[in-house]
Amino acid sequence: MPFDSRLGKAPVQVPGRGDGVTDRQCTIRYFDIDWLSRHDGPGTRVVLFLQGCVLACPWCHSPHSRFVRSPILFFENRCLSCGRCAGVCPEGLRGPDAREEREVGDLCRRCGACVFVCPASRPDGTAGALVLPTREATPEELFALLLPQLELVRSIGGLTLSGGEALLQGAGAARLLELARSAGFHTAVETSGLLPRERYAAVGGLVDCWLFGLRSDIPGAGARERFGARAENLRFLATLPARVIIRKPLVAGVTDTLEELEATIDLMTECGVLEIDLLPLNPHTGHYYRALGLECPPMAEFIPTSDAVAAVRVFFDEGGLTVTSR
Which segments of the chain belong to CATH 3.20.20.70? Predict the structure, then answer.
């Protein structure tokens, strides 16, 4: 979805850790909003994508979400080669230099000055040659922004916090969930399941539905060892009154093996969590890797065939799970 600019704020930088608790003012850093999603929780959802992630999955479809600070995205095919970016950069960098910051010693400050002067870019958009996608707002500002659309989906969906890893920004996420719940909206949070339990306990009473990513950390191990911290956190969430839906990315040869599927059924059955959503990989994300100056992983190798997806669905269905897939 195009990035929303109605808050009227230019992209900003917040140095330091990704934990909202440590911010001088409780704010949320986010990189996108999906105003009408049918894939991120029950019904039709407004989805807020928060910046920062604890993982670096090679098949990630939003690699720009991994960083605590917003990366500069440089789309070379849109560049006019005018050189204005280097003229205003405190370090004299050009757009490609910011993209390849690993090679120039991380000199890019991500101040956004280049975005403002670029004739092929807009500070409030994502369609230019240079993009600083992350924005920052207080939970109250964000709730005011989301409220009109939330009212439209009140009876058929609600609000989902996704990422990245939404609960890395603990205080801001908790406050936004509190505002939504106080107004009577259904809430959902997507998580990798790898955060300390305290993060989940802190918002446990504010979440109606958990979207829990489940894949192995230790291939070849049993269900208890295979899923590591995820298993312990799933057991905890299963004790809460909220609904829990497992989200399983289908990665050919990684998450669709017989051992992985059997361990998934064993753990879900143990926890009494019987809903699973299968997520085939999105192959259309190479442009984000290129814009970051990263090598795009060979997505074609990770994408399961339609027959393989159907077989996994049958396997889980016969294992007593309620299965959905895109």
Answer: 1-69+133-213, 223-326
pLDDT of residue 221: 57
Question: For 70-82, what is each residue's pLDDT tens digit?
Answer: 888 889 899 999 9
232-249 tens-digit pLDDT: 999 999 999 999 999 999
Q: Kindly report the three-state secondary structure assignment for every residue of the chain.
A: CCCCCCCCCCCCCCCCCCCHHHCCCCCEEEEEEEEEECCCCCCEEEEEEECCCCCCCCCCCCHHHCCCCCCCEECHHHCCCCCHHHHHCCCCCCHHHHHCCCCCCCCCCCCCHHHHHCCCCCCCCCCCCEECCCEEECHHHHHHHHHHHHHHCCCCEEEEEECCCHHHCHHHHHHHHHHHHHCCCEEEEEECCCCCHHHHHHHHHHCCEEEEECCCCCCCCCHHHHCHHHHHHHHHHCCCCCEEEEEEEECCCCCCCHHHHHHHHHHHHHHCCCEEEEEECCCCCHHHHHHHCCCCCCHHHHCCCHHHHHHHHHHHHHCCCEEEEC
* Structural class in CATH, domain 1-69+133-213: alpha beta
- Residue 124 burial by Cβ neighbours in a 10 Å radius (0-12, 13-18, 19+): middle
Query: How confident is the model over 123-130, as a mean pLDDT?
Result: 82
CATH code, residues 223-326:
3.20.20.70
Residues sharing a CB contact under 8 Å with residue 55, sequence separation 6 or more, in sequence order: 66, 165, 192, 194
Cα separation of 113 and 90, whole Å? 9
Q: Comparing C-alpha atoms, which of 119, 116, 96 is closest to residue 108? A: 96
CA distances from 267 to 106, 183, 240, 318 (A): 43, 35, 17, 16
